[in-house]
């Protein structure tokens, strides 16, 4: 044996051990962090044009309140503590300037319009109580105010139309506990084990049957988590129309299918044994079946999305840039998320896109349920925009934006992370083709889009509001509904109005109707409305005249008037309907943007209804009207509490005016019918409960603009598709082998609630 051999083997073993150790260490080494860049850029002074649309800053809100306190000559009580007989500031929001002024500033080099606020005040402490709206400006240092109420609505807004303040709900709650319930102590104690804390209530709206009424049914539930599906069978009708709280009264009581004059009569009937009592099993504080606490332990982590080379969009103030897109965003207190000055490839395609209203009409055999027609704009879709949870409400790595509002207080409030913006890989190609005929190649483009999202929780409903921007120039407006199903106490013929979802719980049928304002400016402000569709025609085959062919052909029609452009909810509408520009593309077609609606809305309230005109926008799946500054919204926050004499009736917008070569607005109604079922317990899922619309280029470009996207993939059979310069996807193991910079999880949703 060679005496050197053991040393050679030892050296070889050491080398092998060293190499293996390096390999193991390199595998165990943490991957580098992904690139990052600032998503939200700081303010750049007054030069940013998008600030003409910006929401009020907290400092501006404070200045408006100070100005109103010092210049109206009346005492203003903090609305959070106000009685109906007080004067108070209900809300302060931005007053967006007139479109003509804004376009002169944006496009014509004109002066920046003065920055102004719109303040809504309740004047209960005066001989003629009313609601008044003031425009206050210029900001940031107010020096004037204008009463615009008569200009906007044609007269004063009667006081009974005012939306209920939170303080009024509290005052009604105190009335129920100290006055109404005090009249039926035996019934409440023995039937509900009432202790002053274990009953919650939900109001209904509108409040009565005629103008001037303020009589509300309050539905009683067990005060547990998810109380909306824990009805106990008791409902109380309270007349709270008087500005003197001491004059409020119970008008009627309902329990388990029977009506009573008041709580005194209910108590008497119970004590005498003349009531059919249906005791509800007491639920634990977590709600039991209504608890949203997961029934399974956490396991493997769900898939996450991240940006290996940093976000590909940027946000400056209220302005967003993403690939060929740019737009400004804002959050209206009443209507929620809205967008302005939407441009693709530098050209404006829409001036304004925003939510107008969310209506839900309920059915039930209980009084509260059957009389409910919620108009959520009256409660405040933007006001009830809720803080978003990273990784659930939006992708974990999304950009989260704080918003501010002044509603029912004298000081602004911050809603942390109440809006999110993110680019999302939708997991499917935007377009693709695999060719194995004639030539061999693959071409495709990942469908990656930018999403702007907010979520409003209005009572039991949670609405997920999205605006989505695609690389082919399309915009999608989408709403998804979740939250708790509202319910009634199951009794009698209740199953005519929904499904039984728990022992005493009837999930009540309801319609959801969502209205949007879409102010398209296609190739300029002046547009026309054109409808394309199809029809079959019968022809003889030219090469074989004895044979007949049925072939589809294109039908075309210009819709000249507002009446022609108002399509009833369930009527047939042209499948291609678009705003046409006064310019043509390379192929001689009018450039256009098509409106495509996705909806399975329930039926509209019959027009014979005394309150239908207040929601007459819901008659139409689409209505196109001439744009007018005096018709800024399809409804009003005052319609909820006086739908019988609506402050704004959308039906009046449609008066057969010509809409050819005019500045036009599309009013889009989408929605869904919801019949709650057992799978709505504990609460409703978004799957299948969504609706919306698409705005799609239609001959607007000479070819699909997404062909210029940097995300495109193309390779042939003759190319090395594993080479990065040929196929960027092949480099993902290298370019995307980084760890995302996920910030620590935080949540501020329980602060200042």
UniProtKB/TrEMBL annotation:
Residues 162-257 form the Copper amine oxidase N3-terminal domain. One of its GO terms (molecular function) is primary methylamine oxidase activity. It holds the Pfam family Cu_amine_oxid. Topaquinone (TPQ) is generated by copper-dependent autoxidation of a specific tyrosyl residue. Its EC number is 1.4.3.-. Its cofactor is Cu cation. It is an enzyme of class 1 (oxidoreductase). One of its GO terms (cellular component) is plasma membrane. The chain crosses the membrane at residues 7-26. Keywords: Copper, Membrane, Metal-binding, Oxidoreductase, TPQ, Transmembrane, Transmembrane helix. Residues 305-707 form the Copper amine oxidase catalytic domain. Residues 74-144 form the Copper amine oxidase N2-terminal domain. Contains 1 topaquinone per subunit. InterPro entries: Cu_Am_Ox_Cu-bd, Cu_amine_oxidase, Cu_amine_oxidase_C, Cu_amine_oxidase_C_sf, Cu_amine_oxidase_N-reg, Cu_amine_oxidase_N2, Cu_amine_oxidase_N3. GO terms for biological process: amine metabolic process. It comes from the Eukaryota. Belongs to the copper/topaquinone oxidase family. PANTHER family: COPPER AMINE OXIDASE (PTHR10638), RETINA-SPECIFIC COPPER AMINE OXIDASE (PTHR10638:SF4). This is Amine oxidase. The gene is Aoc3.
């Amino acid at each position: 044996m060679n005496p050197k051999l053991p040393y050679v083997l030892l050296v070889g073993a050491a080398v092998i051990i060293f190499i293996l150790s390096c390999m193991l260490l390199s595998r165990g080494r943490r991957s580098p962090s992904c690139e990052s860049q600032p998503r939200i850029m700081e303010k750049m002074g007054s030069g940013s044009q998008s600030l003409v649309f910006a929401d009020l800053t907290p400092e501006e809100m404070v200045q408006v309140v100070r100005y109103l306190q010092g210049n109206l000559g009346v005492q203003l009580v903090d609305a959070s503590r106000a009685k109906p007989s007080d004067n108070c500031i209900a809300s302060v929001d931005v007053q967006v300037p007139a479109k003509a002024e804004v376009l002169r500033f944006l496009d014509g080099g004109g002066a920046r319009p003065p920055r102004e606020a719109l303040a809504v005040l309740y004047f209960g402490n005066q001989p003629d109580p009313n609601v008044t709206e003031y425009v206050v400006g210029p900001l940031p240092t107010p020096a004037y105010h204008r009463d615009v109420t008569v200009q906007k609505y044609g007269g004063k807004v009667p006081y009974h139309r005012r939306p209920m303040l939170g303080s009024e709900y509290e005052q009604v709650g105190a009335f129920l506990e100290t006055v109404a319930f005090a009249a039926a102590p035996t019934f409440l104690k023995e039937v509900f084990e009432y202790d002053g804390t274990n009953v919650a209530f939900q109001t209904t709206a509108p409040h009565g049957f005629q103008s001037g009424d303020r009589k509300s049914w309050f539905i009683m539930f067990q005060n547990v988590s998810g109380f909306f599906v824990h009805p106990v069978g008791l409902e109380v009708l309270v007349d709270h129309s008087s500005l003197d709280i001491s004059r409020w009264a119970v008008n009627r009581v309902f329990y388990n299918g029977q009506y009573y004059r008041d709580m005194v009569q209910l108590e008497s009937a119970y004590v005498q044994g003349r009531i059919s009592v249906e005791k509800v099993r007491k639920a634990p504080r977590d709600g039991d079946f209504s608890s949203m606490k997961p029934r399974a332990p956490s396991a493997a982590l769900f898939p996450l999305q991240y940006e290996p080379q940093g976000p590909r969009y940027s946000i400056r103030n209220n302005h967003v840039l993403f690939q060929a897109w740019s737009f400004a965003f804002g959050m209206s207190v009443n209507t929620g998320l809205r967008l302005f000055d939407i441009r693709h490839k530098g050209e404006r395609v829409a001036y304004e896109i925003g939510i107008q209203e969310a209506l839900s009409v309920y059915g039930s055999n209980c009084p509260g349920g059957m009389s409910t027609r919620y108009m959520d704009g009256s409660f405040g879709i933007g006001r009830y925009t809720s803080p978003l949870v990273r990784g659930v409400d939006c992708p974990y790595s999304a950009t989260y934006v704080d918003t501010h509002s002044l509603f029912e207080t004298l000081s602004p409030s911050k809603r942390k992370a109440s809006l999110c913006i993110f680019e999302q890989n939708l997991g499917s190609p935007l377009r693709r083709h695999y060719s194995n005929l004639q030539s061999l190649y693959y071409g495709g483009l990942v469908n990656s889009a930018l999403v702007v999202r907010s979520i409003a929780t209005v009572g039991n409903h949670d609405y997920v509001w999205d605006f989505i921007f695609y690389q082919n120039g399309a915009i999608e407006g989408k709403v998804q509904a979740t939250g708790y199903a509202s319910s009634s106490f199951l009794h009698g013929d209740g199953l005519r109005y929904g499904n039984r979802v728990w022992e005493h719980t009837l999930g009540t049928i309801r319609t959801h109707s969502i209205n949007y304002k879409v102010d398209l400016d296609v190739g300029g402000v002046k547009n026309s409305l054109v409808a394309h569709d199809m029809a079959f025609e019968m022809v003889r085959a030219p090469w074989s005249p004895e044979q007949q062919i049925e072939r589809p052909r294109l039908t075309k029609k210009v819709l000249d008037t507002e009446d022609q452009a108002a399509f009833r909810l369930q009527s047939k509408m042209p499948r291609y309907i678009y705003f046409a520009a006064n310019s043509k593309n390379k192929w001689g077609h009018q450039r256009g943007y098509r409106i495509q609606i996705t909806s399975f809305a329930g039926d509209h309230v019959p027009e014979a209804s005394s309150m239908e005109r207040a929601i007459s926008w819901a008659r139409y799946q689409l209505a196109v009207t001439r744009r007018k500054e005096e018709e800024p919204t399809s409804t009003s926050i005052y319609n909820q509490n006086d739908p019988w004499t609506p402050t704004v009736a959308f039906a009046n917008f449609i008066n057969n005016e010509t809409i050819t070569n005019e500045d036009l607005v599309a009013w889009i109604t989408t929605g869904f019918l919801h019949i709650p079922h057992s799978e709505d317990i504990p609460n409703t899922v978004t799957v299948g409960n969504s609706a919306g619309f698409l705005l799609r280029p239609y001959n607007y470009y000479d070819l699909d603009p997404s062909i210029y996207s940097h995300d495109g993939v193309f390779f042939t059979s003759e190319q090395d598709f594993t080479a990065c310069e040929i196929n960027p996807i092949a480099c993902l193991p290298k370019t995307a082998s980084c760890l995302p910079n996920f910030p620590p999880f935080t949540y501020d949703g329980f602060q200042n609630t």
